[in-house]
Amino acid sequence: MATLIEQKYIAAHPGSAQRHEKAKHMFPNGVTHDARRQNPFQLYYTHAVGPYKYDVDGNEVIDFWSGHGSLILGHSHPEIVTAVQEQMAKGTHLSGSTDLEIRWGQLVQEMIPSAEKVRFHSSGTEADMMAIRMARAYTEKSKIIKFEHHFHGWSDYLSADADGIGGIPKEALETVIILPANDISLVEKTLQDNDDVAAIILEPTGAHMGLEPILPAFLEGLREVTTKFGVVLIFDEVVTGFRISDGGAQGYYGVTPDLTTLAKILGGGLPGGAVCGKAEIINMIEPRDDADFNKNRRIAHNGTFNANPLSASSGIKALEILKRDPINEKAIGMGNLLK
Fold first, then answer.
1. Does one domain contain both 17 and 132?
2. Which residue of 17, 71, 272, 281 has the fewest C-beta atoms within 10 A of its own C-beta?
């Protein structure tokens, strides 16, 4: 029997209930993202402006999730809408390079301390996958250290401690070492005992969007031990990039990783991801005058929508606004107010 709260929810959202019944015949659980799976059913929305979303039944809700964390400027920001509309009229996919990708990359280099070079992708999961592969190719080592509960997308290697690892070969899982965060002595001992570690990857403010915080001293310790053992340090700044400061967590804490992964805010509300960092590591993508390197160590990388004009136009405008206006300071102030 439904609780009183559930009864009120069902009564207020008949349109969403009807759509959920249709969706169950198309999608697993009737949803297209695990996080949208809700009981008794998820809501269906028609549009959003600023901090507000509107569902099919005309209800107005405040969006505290901000587009899964991608909309630091709110929904339908007028400058971003204009930029995307103007680019839409010029073309959505030009099958070639554009000035937009140069400007987008330039902004990343200007804002993210580690960004000597940049490679664009279409999502944070893709960016994390590439960062791991770059580290392995660069170091010629295999294992990865990640930390408990830290989320890095749904790829085989980075889902090792998550629920829902069906279909992942055990051989892939065995290349990942999972450690508790904030214990630098354990990290150092693990590196001493394993000479095949290519990279350490983490969310620099902690798991679950910072609900399990990382101590700043731990970041500093990671920088020291990875340098000591020749291990690539990867900051997954898909959530934190451009959020806690213009320069992300690395700018805020003053700890520069070897590689950084970005998404969410990077695209200004449209799909977009990137790996940036040390040129010598990013350049593992570049062909050389060396047949053996090109065959066995170079990383091939394609992607139909890498740096596509629509995402680039949206991302450029979002980053320009973040550089121009005190958005981060305002967000931090609002967070402190909620506390």
1. no
2. 17
